[in-house]
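Sequence and fold
=================
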Amino acid sequence: MIGSRRITGLYGHAVFAVLTAWALYCWQARTLILDAAFQSFQFIAEGRPVVMVERFGTALMQVLPLVFVKADAPLSMVLQAWSAAFVLYHWGLFAIAFHGLKDHKTAIAIAWFALLFTGDCFYWIQNELLPGIALLLLGIGYLRAYSLKTPWQWAFLAALMFTLVYIHPLMIFPLGYVALRNDARLNTRAMIGAAGFAILAFAAKYLLQAPNFYDRGMTGQYIREFHFSLRAFLQSQSLRDFTAHLSQNFLLLLPLLLLISWFYARRRRYLHLSWLWLAVTGYTFMLMQRFLQDDRWYIQESHYQALALFVLVPLVWDLLPEMRWRPWLTGLVMLLTLWRLGGIFVLHEQYAARLQYVRGLMQESKYPLSVVAESKLDRKKLLMTWGLPYETLQISALESPDSIRIIAVADNADTFSKAISRDSMTTFLMFPRKAFRDLPQQYYRINPGEGWKPY
């Protein structure tokens, strides 16, 4: 794909080696933040993979850090493994495609997906949509490699489709895109089988049972809060954020769209051309409308990663095979790769500054367990406030399991500090509170003292 099969393999492994090294270097910025800090606390406390809102596919990323937990490794090593696991997952999919399926097109698509529009989502690591899309790309390679003649091949396809459907609600759009366009030219038998299993999975998730509370609440906002106003849309924060990033990590979006459009127009494949623009503009508009006045770009960006699939599938399976690869194209790919890696590297500074702000809050805390009023916090620096108890727990536990300091957040610190149990960890979502005495003592030895006090 990049000059030759050998160069493609070297390129992909080099990209993931660099990303893994950077994930290890930036492990604190990637793991001591919001969901990542919360989830790592949960699986360390439980000593097993913890599935969040039925998204069981991403439990795979918890296996490596749990190996270190079982070995009683220091917390720093557990979290370093947690940080690396997300990149190693994508690297593993690349290796399966390149060495197992012998499909260099699928392999390069997985490698480019890890880079193309990646920015803040390298540091806000736990959005399940990203591993879902990468797994879908591998699924394309699997359907291209096997004709589904054995029961095991059908069983694997069923497991794949159920995993993709359950891994994130927005996977319906990448799945639908691949099915309707079929740029990878999958055979009819494979497509019907995959579609049938996907329909069964959607029925199992949404029809045979009530959707989980998170899908009803957060994802349901796409429908419940849709009130279109052209004036509000043109003045929206989401539109400003997206257009601003068209000159940053999304700089290649429009050039790639124009290149693929030119290719389809030259070959009079107008239906494919129409579907491409419908998918990109429709999905982008849907996200903009959902995050209309939301300034949390790091969340929006992770959802926009589906756009990478929309352009990579026609680019890799339609356009590039009909091009005559020249040495200067290899040079261009290398330059663009270095530019994208550089864009990821420079963002580390703002996430390191965020951690410094959290550490500053901890230094000013007078008690091991304290509750701070949300009005006293800089939400822009924290990104969101709900994760602060888990972030401060993990940061202090890294220093010593005997020097735990936890800062919880509430609208009214006085009322909340009196209401919360003095000998248990504050909680979030559907997880029950965990008593301090039940936490693994090699990581968290918490003396509640006088219990929770106002900050």
Q: What stands out?
A: The chain has two domains: 5-216+311-346, 358-454. The chain has a mean pLDDT of 92. The chain is about 65% helix and 5% strand.
